[in-house]
Amino acid sequence: MKKLIAICLIGLLSLALPLTVMAAELTSCTVTADSVAGAPGETVTVAVQITGNSGFTNLAIALDYDREHLKLKSIETKDGDNPYLCGSNVSINKAWDENEKAYGFVVSASADPVKENGILFAATFEIASDFVGEAQVTPVVRYIRNNEAVFSIFEEIHATVTAGTVTSVLVGDVNGDGIMEYNDVMLAYKAFLGDESLTPEQMAVVDTNRNGTVEEAEYQAIYQIYIGGST
Ligand SMILES: [Ca+2]
Ligand SMILES: [Ca+2]
Q: What is the Å distance from ligand 1's center to 213 Cα?
């Protein structure tokens, strides 16, 4: 009798295990905030994407972000020319509070499941004018559900979240130390003379016409920024 029970249990377990794995595979996704770069005072748009999407009808995602260095200006959802994947009924709340912090908050619903991977919605931030560095943007998934299941029971979908960053780079800061100083001018000047080779990051700051070399006008532009003129 004991043997029989044991065999039955093993049988059940061997059935249950693949089913559990299958269920996990069918009901998970990844929600990712993009990483972007801008200059102090500029506005940047961070897309929130879904991958591994098994199909959802309802979602609620809040955006946590570095409030000291970023100001949330707007959230763009599925509307007109925006081919975003959030549902056809969308509401946005820029002042949703939890723990007395304001979040961007998107709640959406659609009749038919959305099964594509892509951008759910996008958020536009203004970078603080005195900020140089990296600020975090983190999607907080309140829920993602699918009501396609039998008897219209909402099925919770597990979401893995990946945070994004907004990197603020000072224009003219060739050596990337967050300060516009004489060393930046010297570095650009030496690169112009051919005495110094710049890293790809440094070239991204100096080589504004993207031709792979530093011309006199480009080094002069760095000098103008240093002395407070315009380029
Ligand atoms: Ca510098
Ligand atoms: Ca150039």
A: 20
Q: How confident is the model at residue 3 (pLDDT cuts 50, 70, 90)?
A: low
Query: Residue 34 C-alpha to ligand 1 middle, in angstroms?
Result: 26
Can you name the CATH fold of 27-168? Answer: Immunoglobulin-like (2.60.40)
Which residues does residue 44 pair with via DSSP β-bridges, in sequence order? Answer: 125
Q: How far is the CA of 157 from the centre of ligand 1 (A)?
A: 46
- The predicted model scores a pTM of 0.72
Cα 217 to middle of ligand 2, angstroms: 8
Q: Alpha helix locations (H) across the chain?
A: 2-26, 182-193, 200-206, 216-226
Model pLDDT for residues 70-110, shown as the tens digit of each residue: 999 989 988 878 889 987 777 777 556 666 677 888 999 99
Distances (CA, A) of 229 to 168, 172, 218, 226: 21, 12, 14, 7
Ligand nearest, relative to CA of residue 185: 1
Nearest to 64 by CA among 76, 51, 53, 48: 48
Q: How confident is the model at residue 7 (pLDDT cuts 50, 70, 90)?
A: low
**Where in the chain is CATH 2.60.40.680?**
27-168
Query: Quick one: which ligand is closest to 191's CA?
Result: 2
